[in-house]
Every structure is written in C-alpha cells, then in structure tokens.
Amino acid sequence: MNPLLDSLAAIGRAAIGFVREAGALTLFALEGLSHLLRPPFYWRRFVMALTEMGYFSLPVVALTAVFTGMVLALQTYTGFSRFNAESAIANVVVISITRELGPVLAGLMVAGRIGAATAAELGTMRVTDQIDALSTLSTEPMKYLVAPRLLAGVIALPLLVVIADILGVMGGFIVASVKLGFAPLTYLHNTFSFMQAGDVISGLVKAAVFGFLIALLGSYRGYFSRGGAEGVGAATTGAVVTASILILAFDYGLTELFFSR
Amino acid sequence: MSTPPASVPPARGEVPRLRIRGLRKSFGDKRVLDGIDLDVPRGTSMVVIGGSGSGKSVLLKCILGLIAPDDGVIELDGRNLLALPRRERLAQRARIGMLFQNGALFDSLPVWENVSFGLLARRMVGRREARERAADLLAQVGLAASVGALSPAELSGGMQKRVALARAIAAQPDILFFDEPTTGLDPIMGAVIDGLIVDCVKRLGSTAVAITHDMASAARIGDAAAMIHRGRIIWSGPAGALLDSGNAEVDQFTHGRREGPIQMELRR
CB contacts < 8 Å between A and B, how many? Predict the structure, then answer.
C-alpha cells in the first residue's frame, strides 16, 4: 500500500468518472436534440412543459427580480455616495440586471423549481416502469419526455428574463425615486439612455443556455434514476446542484465570450 | 440439468408465435440469463414461473426490447427481432401488449388517455374517438366509463390493474405479456384479474406469456408452463402438470417446500 499511489488512483478514478459522466450527458443531450428534428413532435407535451417552466415560474422569478433591483439600487447608492457618484445608480442597476442578475437569478430560481420537479417526475416514472411502458406503447421516451422539455427550456427562460429585466429595473426605480429622492423622469432617462441592445441580448442568450441546462440536467438525472424513493431523492438533489453549478460556470464562460476584448 | 428445446411443441411445420434460442444476458460478472430456449405456439397461454432473482423479469425485458441481450435469438412469427432494423423493430413492437407488475399507469394523464395511449401514439384514432374507445375497453375489464375521467392515483390497486389490462389490449396485440399480474392484490381480486386476462386473450385470439410465482394464478392463466431457474429453463410442459412434474426443483417451488434442491443451492 503506497499512500501516494492510492491518492493518485483515487484522483484518476474521479477524473475518469467525471469524463464518463460528461460524455454520457453530452450523448443524452444530442439524442434529445435529434428528436426535435425528427417527427413526430409532441406539441401538447411542449406546451405543458412551457407552461410549467414559464408561466408557473413567473411569481418566484418576478419577486426575485423586484427585490434584487431594489437591493441593488440601495447598495449602489450606499457605496457610490462615498465618492459622490450617486447619479450612476440607474446605469449600474440596468447593466447589472440585464447582463447578469436577471438571467443568473432567474436561472437559479428555475433550476430549483423545475430542475427538481423534472428529475422527480422522470425518476418516479423510471422506478415505477412508466418509462418502459412508454416504449411498449410505440412511444420513444426521449422524444416524449425529454425533447419537449429541452425546447421549452430554451424558450421559457428568455421570456422570463425579459420580465425579470423589466421588474428588476422597476425595483431599482422604485427605491431610487421613492426612498432615495431621485427625480423619476431623470432616473428613467438615465436608464434608457445607458442601456444597449447588446446588454439585453447577451442576457437573453445566457437565459436560453441556462434554460437548456436546467431541462437537460433535470431530465438526465431523472431518466437514469435508480433505487426507488432514495434514488429519486438523490436524482432530484443532483439535478438542482449540478444545474446551479453549471449555470454559474457557463455564465462566466458566456461573459468571457460576449464582453472580453 | 437439461434444457428442453421447446415448451409446447408447435404443430408440424407451424412457426411458433414466439421462439427464443440461446438467450444470454449478464450484468457485470453476474450471468442472469444463461441460454434460454423457449417456444410459445400461436394461441397458447404460457406461464413462466421461477423464484425471485431467477431471471424472469430480465427475460421479459429482453423480449420487449427494453434490455439488449448479449447473445441469442428472439423470433416473433419467425422474424428475429434482434436482427431487424430499428424502424421495423418498432413496428413489431406495436404487435405486443404488456401488463406491468404495478400497472405502470401514467400519473400525469387521466385514465381514458392511459387506456388509449397506444392508439393515439400510433395515430390510429383521434382524441375524440380515443375517448370512446377507452370507454369500450374499460367496459371490457368491468369498469364504468366514468372511471375514464379519474386520475390513476384515485384508483384502487385492483382498478389500476384493470386499467392497465385495458391499455394492454387496446391495440388488439398479437401477443400479450403479463408481469406478475396478481402481485399486490387480494386473492379474490387476483382471481378476477386472472379471469379477465383469460377472457381478453380468448376474445382477441392472442398468444400470452405470463410471468408469475403465484401458483393459483399460473393454473388459471396457463395452457403451458415453464420454470426458469438460474437463468435457464429447467422444465417445461402443460400447465396442468406443474404440480406433478416429476422435476425436483419444480416440485419444491410449486409446493412451496423449504427443503429441496433450490434451497440447497442457496445455502452454498
């Protein structure tokens, strides 16, 4: 027994496990996407997934955005007042919300809500033979369960982020105009004159990627769930944790891609 | 231990509905199916018995295409399902009906949509006609049409089994599979479900394969029987001969004796 070799072996096993998991996830994603290109497509399932992911996530995303905008305005004011730059609050709020906080916070909220629900639903279907039953009824489970969710994720999250952007800016506006004494019209003018289409579009592209990741991870973890209730629980936790980490990692990567010069 | 090549010999020249040869499947080092040979002639109801972990469910999943076997042949009317292109294999799957052990009804759909799911998936009917067909099918398994509006969670275990049976027979399959059809049911409901299975199979003129370890159920459903043990068919013959097979393992299993060759093997 050589402790050094044992440690290296453990690191090697972990690395192999990571690569294997990443490969399996990539193949799963490609198979899911390939079903979007081949008929039949289950439009009813897509509408259901879109409603669940978009419409029913609206309250939690809206509240998160409003409070984030309010806190951001307050914190910015406190910090910027130290060097007499309070007038930049509107600019900071709009750029932070549209580029970063809108998509990331909406993504994390939806990951908690939809990632968990998807993993739990598919995991339960797996352990109760419902996924096998689909196969015996001439229905490809990936096409019926996964493909509509992937498409819904790509569409629903940008729509949510548009609303989150508006509400986040509105939260900052309320605090700035009601509590901090800014002139409302001046604040709005500063906001719209500073905001650029690229800021909003980059946030929406991020949101589409995050929506895809949330649907993918929830589906993947649930689809390969094993071992009854405990396995479904582990799949649910795994889906939320992995999706959240990937959202943050991809956020950095996309920010590098869009804004680094 | 010899492996009989056929369970019930088909008539001379007749291709069995289901023919399995040399089916093998391992999970890691564990060999679960070790060369299964089985014939099921048309119109026969075959019961496959065997203890827990004997390979019954894996055999069923291999036949249904849910697990890929390592080796062997699975023929449906003389066509090897394992050698068919994917599209043809899916088409052949439409000829198969399956009743899962716990029903496996889709929680997110109402009962009527569960029953007619296969018809809708294969574009055989529109949604309105599917609903009418579901009511007919529910009647065939002794359930009122109003049950169609309920969700599976609102049904008792026996009702769920009936709905699952209605779903299995909806597309009038050529061959029906039943995985432990009476598991979790009281003896009376078990007998009711068995009776419905026999009626449905006769009405459709289908072939049936039931996997069970319930001897009363096996006697009610089966024309022919086979016993699987350690991944091999160790006995096959008429279902009526199960209790007097002359095979030590079958005798021990069917009479539920603690002592015998199977238990001795477990002790090793």
Answer: 47
Whole-angstrom Cα distance, residue A213 to residue A34? 16
Q: What is the pLDDT of residues A73-85, one digit of tens each?
A: 999 999 998 888 8
- What's the total number of domains in chain A? 1
For residue B106, what is the nearest residue in chain A, using CA coordinates?
A130
CB-nearest to A136 from B64, B105, B106 is B64
Distance CA A73, CA B32 (A): 65
Q: Domain range for residue A160?
A: 3-259
Distance separating alpha carbons of residues B163 and B176, to the nearest angstrom:
15
Q: Determine the angle formed by the axes of helices A184-194 and A147-174, rounding to 10 degrees.
A: 140
Q: How far is CA A113 from the centre of its chain?
A: 10
| Stated pTM of the model | 0.88
Q: CA of B61 to nearest chain A CA: how many angstroms apart?
A: 9
ipTM of the complex: 0.86
**Which residues of A fall within a CB distance of 8 Å from B178?**
none
Q: Which two tokens stand for residue B107?
A: 């929680």
Taking the Cβ of residue A130 and every Cβ of chain B, the question of whether any pair is shorter than 8 Å is answered with yes
- Chain segment B54-75, per-residue pLDDT in tens: 888 899 999 999 999 999 999 9
At A160, the pLDDT band (50, 70, 90 cuts) reads: very high
First and final C-alpha spacing in chain A: 51
